[in-house]
Amino acid sequence: xxxxRQLTNSFIFTFGITPPRPEQERTATVFISALLFGTILLVLxxxxxxxxxxxx
Length: 56
Known about the structure:
Blueprint: H1 3-15, H2 25-55
Helix pairs in contact: 1-2
């Protein structure tokens, strides 16, 4: 199974979102994966900025 599809299914069932129709499954996978990775990058970026502000 595609790891991104598994990640998407976990996200959908964790937050109780209605699963997408089969023809929309690929779009949902791309959107949710991008959303999760974007959130992770945002948090890491903010952490770097805060640490840089503290130690410089």
